Structures are given as structure tokens and as C-alpha cells.
Amino acid sequence: MNDIGVDDLNVLTEETLMNPEALKSMVPAPARAMETVSGGRLAIKKILIRQDPRLFLIVGPCSIHDTTAAMEYARRLKALSEEVDDSLLLVMRVYFEKPRTTTGWKGLVNDPHMDDSFCIAEGLKQGRRLLVNIAELGLPTSTEALDPVTPQYLQDLISWSAIGARTTESQTHREMASGLSSAVGFKNGTDGGLEVAINALQSVSAPHRFLGINHQGQVSVIHTRGNAHAHIVLRGGGGRTNYDPVSVNLCEQQLLKARIPANIMIDCSHANSNKDPRQQTLVTSNVADQIVNGNQSIVGLMVESNLEWGKQSIPENLADLKYGVSVTDACIDWATTETMIRALRDKVRGVLPGRKSLAAA
Fold this sequence. Notes:
CATH superfamily: Aldolase class I
Largest sheet: 8 strands, parallel, barrel
Number of helices: 10
Order of helices and strands: HHEHEHEHEHEHEEEHEHEH
């Protein structure tokens, strides 16, 4: 008998999680919610293939930590979406997982109580319940697909997905995204370069086979057909912005050279705003001017917005949290969001119907 220990030397405990099918039975999605998801996905795909002249905007908090505040935000965004629907498709940003450069709060799914207790089962329930409630309002949602297991629990309620700058280069995430049912945006790398995102777009459009879990939670070999509705998200990086006309034109050229349709989303936050929420309004205005002046490639924007301005640190006493204020990146407030989106709609509404696609030759 060999008593030499070689397995799990750094593992403290294991916890068996409910399978995706069980969570969906616990928090089912009514027909109204599924109609919203399906309708949002179809609308975005039509925008990407230029059957719908509108822009789509991913708008909402940097991350969700308070589901009550998130529902208040969703109701306001739904009302605004009906007002601007002739030109803009508004999709609520509902991000549950946060990639951390070193350490920090990892998001609602991982740590819903914000105390390092990591009650992931509870986080998944809260997240799914919130997505159902927002979808029942008739408002489509978006999220970042970060953990490769989480999509089986939540992605049936998502109309658009992002792959972040830190994971765009990851083959695991490219494979996962090839099987997502929604359109997906790949952000350029944190250094501001386009190569990793363009490589990702080529990869994600192809079929893949990889290890994952099925709806019963069993480890499975997943076979995908490839995602035909992936596109690039310019978010700046390496100390530089990349939403200006020159940067956008260079991106168009590289996409077309790689035989990828020139569909570009501009992330108005992150490096493009130098993490200063006040800059998001300027970025949005600049993008609107580009469209008015003839740009054909920009199909969407991403905005980090919350009920209140700025950000806050997570206090030791959670009762001291300020309502409607981000606990991750700083956001613009609701009043600024309304003004900015209305101004964008007013600028571009007259030119959107005449735009054409920039397809690869």
C-alpha cells in the first residue's frame, strides 16, 4: 500500500454544486422572459448583418452587487429604451463575474454576500432570478462570459455576451464562445493591440470540440458549430485610446484583411475613458460624429452607468454601502445616462438608415 499523497495537496474542501438543470427548475424562465431573450438576440444579429440600421448599446453597472438597485435601473432603462427604439437598441449590462488582476471582490455569482464566504450556489440563484425579472420587463441583457462553467446556468437568459480583454487570448474562452447562442464581442487586449481579438474572431467562427459540462452537470465533450455573430470591441489599452477615427479605420483595415466583417463596438469606458466616467460622454459624442460623417463600421457602444455617480469601496459594515453606487469601476449616473443616450439618438437617427456594411472582399 502506497501512502504517498499526490492528489489535491492545496485543496482544502470540495462542495458539490447543483447542476444547471436543477437551477433552471428552481428559477424557471417564463415564456415572456424567453421571448425577450430571443427577440434581443435576433435584433442584435440583424444589426450585425445590416438588416436593422440601428445601433445597439450595452448599458448598465460595471458589476451587479445589489439586485434591488439593479431592478430599479432596469425599469428606468426599459422606459428609455422605448423612447429611443427607432434608432437604438438598449441592452442592460448585467455583469456577475469580475476578473481580478490580483485579488478583490469577484462578483455576485462568486461572492453574493460580499464577505469572502463564496456562497456560489446562492450567487447563481440570485443572478438567475435577476435575469428572469429583467427579461420579464421586456429588456434584453448582456454579461461577460468569464467562468467556462457558468454559461450552462445563466446563458439561456443572455442576449449578448462579452469576452474581456484579459481572456480574449484564452483558447478556453474562444472555444466556449464558439458555442454561445448569443452574439459575442471580443475586446482588444489590455495592451491596446488588435491581433489577439482578430485571432479570436477567426477562432470563434470555427467548430470546436472541448471539455465542459452538460445540463445535468456531467463532464462532457462539447461539439460546437462556431459562432457566426462575433465582433470586436475597442476598449483602448497600453495608455492609449482607440475610439478615434484613425484607430477605427485601422481596425477596419485589419478586420477586412483577415476576411472578417468590419463590425466594431466602442467601449466608452475602461482605457478609452482613462477610467474617468466623465470621459464616457465625450467618447459617445465623438462616435456619434464619426457616424454622422460617414463611418459604416461602428455598430454599437458600451457604457458603464449606474443609478448614482462614481464608485465606492466595499465597507466592513455592508449597511454602509451607498445605494446605486458601483463597487468596481466608476460609472456615470442615471441623469447623465439619459442625456447622453438621447443626444446620441438625436445625432445619428437621420443617417442610420443609409449606412452600408463593410464586408470582407
